[in-house]
Task: structure prediction
Amino acid sequence: FPSHDRPMELANWVAVAKLGKWNQIPGWTETISVGDDNTLWSANGQRLMWFAERVSSSDPGWRSIPGRALQIDGKSRNLAIHVGVENKGTGYALFEWRNGGWENNPGAGTWASIGSDGVIYTSTNNGDLYMDEKTGRGWQLVGRNVAQVAVGNKNNVWIVDRQQRIFRKFGGGWTPVPGQLTRVAVSGDGSNVVVS
Result:
């Protein structure tokens, strides 16, 4: 990653929970995710992307990474996806972090999430939900009316629909979860972080 001396600039402050207590860390963000290896991936209000390798420090060591993003989701220092800024009609271009750089993904979406096993889900601007299990079958339509998706792995997928209802993938279908949210996040190990 290229490093920059300037601080991370954006819109909402960043906090991490450790042992049930929230602590503010330096930086501002629009979207953020925490990898299973305690890495942080962030996209700010200026569409710039940032990466940090430790979340337990009061100074996580933010480093800028190339590209521009509306949203980003990372599961480890080697596994991430972001929604770029190029409009593709049903959403924006998707990019996967591979071999230390971003590679174009043939999908499009307004929100994307990658599982620790490499499975990718994306929701489009019309609410369709697509999945790519990386088995060679490509993108498959698996849901509708979706605003946001969070993937831990292929067996741990959560969505928030356009009415802010929560659903979890169970078997071949979606099971309602009590409550309402605007966003949900899930890690590869199955622990969940929610934002109401």
Summary: The first strand starts at residue 12 and ends at 18. Residues 115 and 153 are 4 Å apart (CA to CA).
